Amino acid sequence: MNNIKLATGHPIPSYIFTSAFYRLAMSITRRIGSIALRVLIAYTVSFSATAAQHPNLVINQQDVADMKQAIAQPGAFQEAFNATLARVDQGLTQAIEVPVPQDAGGGYTHEKHKSNYQQMYDTGIIYQLTGDKKYAQYVKHMLLQYAKLYPTLPLHPKRKSSNEGKLFWQGLNEAVWLVHTIQAYDFIYDALTPAERNSIEMGAIMPVALFLSEQSPKTFNKVHNHGTWATAAVGMTGYVLDKPLWVERALYDLNLAKKGGFMRQLDELFSPDGYYNEGPYYQRYALMPFVTFAKAIEQNEPQRKIFEYRNGILLKAITSSVELSYNKLLFPLNDAINSKGIDTIELVHGIAIAYGLNHDPRLLDIAQQQNNILLTGDGLKIAQGLDNQLQQPYPFVSSLYRDGQQGDNGALVVMRQGGKTDQTLVFKATAQGLGHGHFDKLTWQFYDKGNEIVSDYGAARFLNIEAKFGGGYLPENNSWAKQTIAHNTLVVDEQSHFNGKLNMANKHHPQLKFYESQPNLTIASASIDTAYEDVAFKRTLALVNIKQRDAVIGIDIMHVKANKPHQYDLPVHYQGQLIDTNFQRKASLNQLQALGQHHGYQHLWLLATANLTTHSMLNRLAKITWLNNNGRFYTLSTLVNANSSQHNDEQMLFTQLGANDPNMNLRQQQAFIHRVNATNHTFINVIEPHGEYNPSKEYTLGATSNVAELNHYQQAELAALTIRFTDGQQYLLAMNHSNNVVTEQTQSVITVNGAQYPFKGRAQLIGPLASAQAIQSKNSK
């Protein structure tokens, strides 16, 4: 249809196409061809269409009837209604203000337009539930003010060049405004006169939709969360204004070529497991337009079966968003603000819509934690489920989330032991994640007792705090947060992965070697050989529950191979106060220096150093202990000179973030870095939670590590790590790294110090063994 022009030679304005006109036009095109159609349209000014029933987006008339009945009955839904009613009534006492845009994110005008669309949405739904015309009048008056303002607006004075806006500094916020505002307009549609509708549509609704689509084609057709918001806004507007061409464009791109649009986003942005390639933070943010537009599609065109598309990808995206969290907070991967959690409004909508479709009682557990009942038909179902105590515990278990459209671009592995606040290890072996990705291949994080223990910085940004760089990403997001040294993974020669080049990073991803989960053991291994020109590294991480000791430990084994010597740095960014090391440190007492000059090293103060090769540590074990504010101690035990035949030069560096930061934008965080100069090297680490510190009751228990000795053995594609504790108990983790198919029944045997240890599958924890002395005695015989 986009190629069809009026007899005057001008393109057909897309706003002409009402539903009835669109169907007739397509029919005529098939029968008499496009030439005759041009003649027809040339004399067509308007075409009367059968009006759609309103509301027709996220809620419908049956939902309204059910909700009206529910607000008359005591329960969670009535409470939510009363709370919203009180908030809306308070808003009605305030003068309507639609200011000329001036401020970036966090500034007054920015926040005012955000609160306006939320106020219109809430007031509109209250009108639907009460029928009181004063609520419709309020929304109408605000929309009429927007209809006067918007046509006069130039591009925003503080616009972002990558995605310009008018009401807001970026078009993304403009799309969010329309997603909410079109629903508010839908709520009050039947309370308006034709003249009022015409003024609002021609002055505000349609100009915003056209600005987001025809005037911003690059963003609208982009497979990215900005594109998702734009297509959702325009598609939902198409349903309300009865413009199916807009819906089709939203689904299949401006040219209907299927090179962009909502369906292409569903295809490319999610893996088959529902993992979003920009990470959980942006998965949460993008979820709102995905599920809201999908709900509108389901209401208006159920024959599309949108929630069944790609084997139910949207429902998987909702549940995986929940599962990519710890103690209610999302894992802060890539450009993430680590205060966002499962109670964000986007996930509230997602959980409600998912429960409305499948009535899974486990989703009610999440809804109960969110403590936010929506005034929608799905929100009513959530409220009724909670009132009837139908909720069941949501299972937070070890899981693998493949990355990439086909699930072959690496994976995110979440290893859990116990409940939702017990030990969790996150292994990030995913693809780059587009512009919001970080150069952090094969990084990891560790959580315990409700807290982040081995941490990820996330994004360098103070969201919506205008005094901090306008509330946007700080310059340090590029100079620090994205750089490899800001993460818990290998850095070669003080250069970030892919030399910090995004285009190169987007072309490559790790290879997942294997993943296996057992009741007492979860293990995964991945590798990459493209992050550096001549360096390949493979990392194997495991979370082990030693039930006989009532202990859960994390195991980290990284093999590095190269063609020539390099400097290898393996940092651990920890949360807490350093308590002790079993080796001496040489501290910088009077003057600090930055650790390096580029790739994030310029932001690290060097606090202390230790030459590990000169220390006579017991059993070649370097131990660092810190205390987290959860009252628990953590020790990372590192095997020094793991490659005993090479005797590599090894150091431990202690750093603090904040160098070369004149505006004090960076948070003060600490790390220690295991530095090795070698050609090939194997890093062996064990993280061990232990003890308790209670400052209120003034007691300390178990402040010292129980790990006494580590040994690593390699036998072709088989490997083993032995762990001896201070009481003499010893365990062995046997692993099969074969590239062949290995099932749970695959039998392997590894020999350690002359003793043979059979095991099944990819890995098995064996023990407790006899004491080390007994093994040596047995082997000598």
UniProtKB/TrEMBL annotation:
Residues 95-312 form the Alginate lyase domain. Coiled coil: none annotated. It is found in: Periplasm. The keyword Magnesium does not apply. Gene3D superfamilies: 2.70.98.70, Chondroitin AC/alginate lyase (1.50.10.100). It holds the Pfam family Alginate_lyase. InterPro entries: Alginate_lyase_dom, Chondroitin_lyas, Hepar_II_III_C. Residues 403-611 form the Heparinase II/III-like C-terminal domain. Keywords: Lyase, Periplasm, Signal. This is Alginate lyase. It comes from Shewanella inventionis.
